[in-house]
Structure prediction request, 139 residues.
Amino acid sequence: MITSIAHTTIYVLNQDEALDFYKNKLGFEVGDDMKVEGGFRWLTVYPKSNSQLQLVLAEPKEGPMFTKDSAEKIRSLIEEGAFGAGVFETENCQKTYEELVAKGVEFIQPPTEQLYGVEAMGVDNSGNWFSLVQRKNTI
Prediction:
């Protein structure tokens, strides 16, 4: 029986640059950073308050997962902004948005009221979009 999700993958153009972005701009912690079989780098990050779901920052490269052609196509789609990095929760969307803008994070939508709370839309340094969400208190 599957009991939880431990990792999810975000494809990035450069792992060193993505690590710098997620660690120094978004404030994530480094989970694992190691070389694995075939010369691949297993690199994970997670928000300081929750290490239960880690993000794998993976470069699409030719190997067991991708052909050379498919890796190049995925890199092209990343550059076009066709992928999302996920939904990141915050207790105060406006405050977090302002802190991240001050650090140079690009946003494509400022904090906006939604049915479920307040949401801003940002972009990581590879071109992946992400949501920053403050859930509406439903109690």
Observations:
- The chain has a mean pLDDT of 94.
- Helices lie at 15-25, 68-79, 93-102.
- The longest helix spans residues 68-79.
